[in-house]
Amino acid sequence: MKLKALLIIILALMAVGSLQAQKKNAKIQIAGSVLDASLRPVTNAIIMIDGQNTSSMTDAKGDYKVKVKPMAKMIGVVSFANGMKEEAINGRTVINFSYATSTPQQMQDQAAGEASVNTGYDAQKRSDATGPVKTIDGTDKSKNYATYNSVYDIIMREVGGVRVNGTQVVILGSKDFFGDVPALLVLDGVPVDSFTNVSPAQVESISVLKGASAAIYGTRGYGGAVVVTTKKENQ
After folding, report:
1. pLDDT above 70 covers what percent of the chain?
2. Which of 58, 184, 210, 218 is geometrically suited to a Cys-Cys bond with 45, CB 3.0 to 4.6 A?
3. Residues near 12 by Cβ (< 8 Å), separated by ≥ 6?
4. pLDDT level of residue 85 (50, 70, 90 thresholds)
5. Do residues 97 and 35 lie in contact, with contact meaning Cβ atoms separated by under 8 Å?
6. Cβ neighbours of residue 142 under 8 Å, at least 6 residues apart?
7. Edge-to-edge, what's the strand order for the sheet holding 184-187?
8. In whole angstroms, what is the distance from residue 90 CA to residue 78 CA?
9. What is the DSSP string of 20-62?
10. pLDDT exceeds 90 at position 17
11. Three-class secondary structure of residue 174 per DSSP
12. How many angstroms separate the CA atoms of 147 and 130, rounded?
C-alpha cells in the first residue's frame, strides 16, 4: 500500500510539473487593427514577429490576431502599399498600428533628411527598414563600378556576408530545413532569375535586404532580397 501511495504522489507531482511547463510555454494572443495614413483599414497586411513572417494577415476590416511565444519582443506589420511599422510587445495583448503616426525617432530622422533604402516597391526610411540593409550607390564616381565585370562582381566585392553561386546570391544565415535559401533578385521592381543582362555601368543602386526588410516581398523574400535599380536614360 505504501508503494502504491508513493507512486500516486510521484505521478501527481509529475502532472503538476507538466501543467506548469505547458502554462509557462503557452502562446499569448495579440490582436489589433491596422490603419493607413487616411485612417482606413489596411487589408492583407503581413504580421511579423521578431522579424519573421507569420501565417497571420489583416482581414477586410484591417483587424488581425496572432499567437506568439511569451519571449517574443517585437511585432511588425508589412503592407505592400504602406510599407512597414514595428512595435515593442512589452506584455501587451492589444496593439494597433496606424501609418498616420510617426514615432519621435522617425520624425527626427525625417527632419534630418535621413537616407532612404530602395526596396523595389518604394523607398523606405532607413529607420523603417528593421532588418539588415546594405546599399551601394552605383553613381559614386570614386568607386568606378563601371569597371567591374558584372553586377555579381560588385556584390561579391562590396557586400559582406553574402555568397554568390552562379546566378544566385545567398545571404549568410538564410537557411531552412533543406539548407541555404537564395535571395530574391529584383530588377527595377520586378523579380528576375538573374542579373546577367545588366551592365555594371547601368547600376544606379544595389540594396541587400534581410529579415524584416525583405518581408515586403512575402514568402519570396524568406532568404532576403537583392534589389538592383538601373539608371534612367537621362542620367
Report:
1. 72
2. 58
3. none
4. confident
5. yes
6. none
7. 133-137, 203-209, 225-230, 184-187, 190-192
8. 20
9. HHHHHH--EEEEEEEE-TTSPBPPSPEEEETTEEEEEE--TTS
10. no
11. coil
12. 32
